[in-house]
Design brief:
Blueprint lengths: L3 E4 L2 E4 L4 E7 L8 E7 L6 E6 L6 E3 L7 E6 L4 E6 L8 E8 L6 H4 L7 E2 L3 E6 L1
Parallel strand pairs: 2-11
Antiparallel strand pairs: 1-3, 3-8, 4-5, 4-9, 5-6, 7-8, 9-10, 9-11
Length: 128
């Protein structure tokens, strides 16, 4: 069992930056692939970024590529999402997720059902 708690959300002006953190419980954090997803009001949950167990490979949605950076610290059971050049369309609740992702590549990491554990989310609001 893994429990995930996100933090770092808030209100920021367009062009600004935020750094989200996700703290994971348990001793087996390094055995899980991690992902960040977001959900805006009235929209489906969408993939933002994913990272492999070791952190060697990362994946990004086209909408955030070049602006967001995912990283992890397995010694501290933390995963981060650095978000730069934020836009109003980035406004959403951001959730981190952990899973024994069974395959490789962007398409695999972007699938919601590859993840078994989800955090409650942190609100990110970007004003124009």
């Amino acid at each position: 069992q893994v429990q995930l708690v996100e933090s770092g959300g808030g209100l920021v002006q367009a062009g600004g930056s935020l750094r989200l953190s996700c703290a994971a419980s348990g001793r087996t954090f390094s055995s899980y692939s991690m992902g960040w997803f977001r959900q805006a009001p009235g929209k489906e949950r969408e993939f933002v970024s994913g990272i492999t167990r070791s952190g060697a490979r990362t994946y990004y949605a086209d909408s955030v590529k070049g602006r967001f950076t995912i990283s992890r610290d397995n010694a501290k059971n933390l995963v981060y999402l650095q978000m730069n050049s934020l836009k109003p369309e980035d406004t959403a609740v951001y959730h981190c997720a952990a899973g024994q992702v069974s395959c490789s590549g962007y398409g695999c990491y972007a699938r919601v059902n590859e993840y078994d554990y989800w955090g409650q989310g942190t609100q990110v609001t970007v004003s124009s």
